Amino acid sequence: MSAGYIDEMHEAFHSDLVYRAEDIPLDCSPKPKDLEQTLHGLMKLNGLVIRSLEEIAGRGANAVTYRAGKKFGHEVAQYFQKREDVEGALHELSDLLRGQYSFEVWKPEDKEKFIIEENGETFIYLVFHDCIVRQTLRRNGLDQGGPLCQTLFGYVVGAVEEITGRKAKLEIVHTGPNACLKKLILK
Amino acid sequence: MEIHVDKDACVGCGLCVKDCPMHVYELQENVSVAVRPNNCMGCLSCHEICPAQALEHRGIYGARRHYIDIKVCEMLRKVI
Ligand code: SF4
Ligand code: SF4
């Protein structure tokens, strides 16, 4: 992956913010008027969840929500330029997810490259920072990592498949209140 | 990423050590020490789990918060 793009991505997620455990957020961030794009994404996603539920009722919540997310990913990404390189696809993906999700490619300090090959698998770690699913779950007091998170998995996989033509899989590594770590496995 | 552990507040429970997926912390003489701060990806699970509120992260990206209830916050502002 080109260093320039990675640096640009990391720069976007670097700040001088100091976060203390006792801090209580007293404002919506950003202001509600800036959330229109996010809300449209959410409404669209919910519509697709319902439609998919009708299609495969009884198959289990995860299957339904994953399928809805994947449809959304394919649908949105079909208007984007097709490309084979994963770096370019992730760049396109971060553009098309903007306003609903934001992410950066990430690696532990003992890894040299962002594209990691281990135990016969090729994968990239993605840290998701802004996420409407996480916000929705926390607003409702629900656990992270359940069926609603499957929509995001499906979304990313659908979009990557649409842009690159390659099959992909997304696995959850960790969920947190401020960010989640996921593994994009390339096939 | 800079991680500061308040040594006076830390009760040495080790919850942050167990919970952090990136093995950032180690217990040394019953106090948590951030031994691999560069491995932190900013999830803030450790903040949520620490019973002593002993942790501080500097240079972190604060994710958008859509779930804040404006009416509850207005009420909190009056009492805080
Ligand atoms: S924010 Fe997450 S990754 Fe960073 S030290 Fe805390 S638990 Fe570990
Ligand atoms: S969770 Fe908090 S109190 Fe417990 S060891 Fe970690 S920093 Fe100390």
TrEMBL record, chain A:
What Gene3D superfamilies does the database record attribute to this sequence? Trafficking protein particle complex subunit 3
Top-rank taxon of the source lineage equals: Archaea
Against SUPFAM superfamilies, the record matches this protein to: Ligand-binding domain in the NO signalling and Golgi transport (SSF111126)
Q: What is this protein called?
A: Hydrocarbon binding protein (Contains V4R domain)
Supply the source organism for this entry: Methanoculleus formosensis
UniProtKB/TrEMBL annotation, chain B:
Name under which the protein is recorded? 4Fe-4S dicluster domain-containing protein
| Keyword list, A-Z | 4Fe-4S, Iron, Iron-sulfur, Metal-binding
Give every 4Fe-4S ferredoxin-type domain span.
1-30, 31-60
At the top level, the lineage of the source is Archaea
Pfam families linked to this entry: Fer4_10
SUPFAM superfamilies recorded: 4Fe-4S ferredoxins
Database matches in PANTHER family: ADENYLYLSULFATE REDUCTASE, BETA SUBUNIT, FERREDOXIN III
The species is Methanoculleus formosensis
Q: Name one GO molecular function term.
A: metal ion binding
